[in-house]
Amino acid sequence: MSFLLQQIFGFFKLLNSDTGHNQIASGIALGLILGLSPALSLQSVVVFILIFLFRVQLGAALMSAFFFKFAGYFLDPIADPLGRWILEMPSLRPLYIQLYNMPLVPLTRFNNSVVMGSGILAILLSPIIFFASKKTIIKYRALIVKRFNDSKLWKAFSATGFYKWYNTYQSLYGK
Amino acid sequence: MDETSFKKSKQKSFIRWEALFPASIILGLVIAYFTLFFDSHFRKGIEFVGYNTLGAEVNVSSLETSFRRASIIIRGLQLTDSEQPTHNLFIIGEIKFDMSWDALLRGKILIEVAAIEQIQFHSLRKKPGRLKPPEKASDEPSLIEKEGQKLAKEALEKAKTNYDDNILGDIANLLSGGSSQEQIKNLENNLKSKSLIVEIQKNFTDKQTQWNEKAKNLPQQKDLNAWNERFKKIKTNNFKSPDELQQSLKQFQELLKEADQQVKELEKTGESFSADLKTIDGQLKNLEKTVQEDVKDLEAHFKIPKLDTKAISNSLFKRYAGPYLEKLNEYQALAHEYLPPGLLAKKSDGEENLQIQPRPREHGISYEFGKPNSYPFFWLKKARISSKATPGEPTLGNLAGEALNITSNQALTGVPMVIKINGDFPELKISGIGAEISINHTKRPYRELLSAKVDAYPSDKKMLVSSKDIEVGFTKAVGSALIKASFEEDLIEFSIFNSFSQLDQIVMASNKEINDILGKVMSGIPNWTIEASGKGTLRDLPIEIKSNLGTEIARGFEKVLNEKIAEAKAKVKGIIDEAIAKEKLKLENEINKAKNQFNTEFNNVKEVLAKQKNEIQFKIEDTKREETKKAQKQIEAEIQKRLGPDANKKLEDLKKKIKF
């Protein structure tokens, strides 16, 4: 639990800094894939490994996965017919037969209409979400964070001894 | 926040190397969990799921899994008998199987060989098993539940109606006397046919009034005479001019038109009369049917037994077979509640599509994209079943068998599922157990076959008839059973043959005559046989019960009862005759009289009209012909007069010239 909280605090800290917008955006995009995939599937494991292996902002990925897991329930009525349409395409049937009988691929559960539909939606939406969230973060930093940093209240607070002490602690022990 | 706060993160590499250590710790913990705790949790999981789905305590003594071999060994699987929680429904000593890693990596389960060993039935538990309390039913049942409940109710009603009589009790009742005169009077007044006949009579009287009204509008004799007078007055010869001829013809045409109109009117009345007669005939037929129903009701009231083998067998074995038949009816209702509609509907012939096998799921549809010789989602190729009797363990028997090709997609494997078991339970004195189940869904039509037999088993006390008048049954016997059933799509055919030998019979009747006859009959039947069979669909499965007891009892009671039955039937006939027959005959006579009268009148008028119509037509033709001839002669005379003495020659020349 503390690990989760740490990651979420880290996310807000990074969000309000000047760097790491790619880390956050890729975290949100990968979280989308994670949220729209079934929990027990090969693609979830792969995405999870990618999130851990690469320097993707974990808090952003977890929060995004949590959000899109819920959004996924509302997307099911679209994902199901989309998945059926794709899975019932006669031209793609030989490919599906090949994939279905290959090792590991069936563990993605691609043969389920909702999984296939959600997967396609996730693949199509993830680059859009990546660029959209990147742009949003940059705008957020330029408009809201900068305005906040320039506010008299923040300037007064950053001049206090407590803040200086926190800053020193953060530079010594913070990650 | 300033840049220095996150200076370190800027310098870090793209890959999160520092996560390797915590990841390896997590991996280590996962391995430790699977090594130390997984088996125990899996065992508890089976017990929990079993308890919740089957509604009775499920116990597993031990469970072992191996990741490397992908194997599972379950020992001491006990399932509590929900109807007798002190006992187990069965115990399986050991179940072990290895799954194929090749298939697992493809997301499928393939078990080459599984072993199911040491099976015990109905063994005593160390302590009574827990039973799941019944779930609180929801206030509003779903449509499917409603339909299921309706069918279950219908099935129970059907079972009750068919097996709610007691033929031996009826025989006793018949031999000991009948109903009083007052009761008979009451019965007469309550006959359905009696009220129906009153209704028909009323309807007939109304119709008769209508017919009389219509008959008044038909042409009467005076109309016909007047019409005849008009006909005679029309000039038919010696016309002075063509206008006069035309005048006569016009009068004839008018008369003909009137005749046609009268005939049409007459036919319309005839049609309406026929329709009314048809309705009355239908009502009379209905009356006949109602009379038959009343006869049946009266026979049931007087409990007149039918001395046929089938009725006696049905009646005798209602107590024995009733609960099983009720169960069967409940299963029929359940099948309708839960089986997919496709399974209950007729399928068209044709090859099964191997490639797409959609399996509906709660969320979406899972498709199976199989190809020949590929793995289906689940395939247990062979399960060996074995068990050896052990002294002191009466519920442990000698069993040997195998289950072949249990799979989720037979169209893909191309082989049917077959289960065969043979064995005996020597300590329970059960011998010659044999069962074979074959399920063939490789192609349409789907076929399932079941055959099972038990050569001998001890049977405890069973009562076929138990009423205040009569008791028939046995205290102990040795039974044998043979069951055969086949399902082809939604068509079911089954037969169950049960026989009991070495009987310690109970035969008692309060009526001395019955007691003597029954005692004599039953002592001559050393073995009792019962055969139940049926053929139909799940929704409509008629069941027939035959037994040698039926034949023998019918024969035994034949002489003494035939007389009594004839007497009782005569009584019923008397009631019907008294209440209905006379009235019915009277009504039929009245109807026939009315029918004849109307038909005679109708036909007479019709005949006269037709005759007069023919006469007019003949007159018209005749007048036209005569006048034409006359006119022709006049023209010829005029021509001869104008052409002179050689008129004939000139006329012939002219004809030649104009090629006449």
Summarize the structure.
With about 180 residues, chain A is an all-alpha fold.
Describe this structure in words.
The complex is a heterodimer of chains A (175) and B (660). Chain A has 175 residues and is an all-alpha fold. Chain A has helices at residues 2-15, 21-36, 42-53, 58-87, 93-100, 113-149, 152-158, 161-173. The longest helix of chain A has 37 residues, at 113-149. Chain A is elongated and about 70 Å long. With 660 residues, chain B is α+β, with helices and mostly antiparallel strands. Chain B is 51% helix and 23% strand. Chain B has helices at residues 7-11, 20-36, 38-54, 101-105, 143-162, 167-176, 181-189, 192-217, 221-233, 242-301, 309-316, 318-338, 341-344, 410-413, 512-523, 548-643, 647-657, and strands at residues 58-66, 71-80, 88-99, 109-121, 359-360, 365-366, 378-387, 398-407, 417-425, 430-440, 447-459, 462-466, 470-474, 477-488, 491-501, 505-509, 528-537, 543-547. Chain B has a 13-stranded mixed beta sheet with strand order 1-2-3-4-7-8-9-10-11-14-15-17-18. Chain B is elongated, with a radius of gyration of 46 Å. Classes of the chains: A mainly alpha (175), B alpha+beta (660). The A-B interface holds A 13-14, 16-20, 52-55, 76, 79-80, 83-84, 87-88, 93, 96-97, 99-107, 109, 111-115, 117, 145, 149, 167, 170-171, 174-175 and B 1-6, 8-10, 12-16, 19, 23, 102, 105-108, 355-356, 361, 363-371, 374-375.
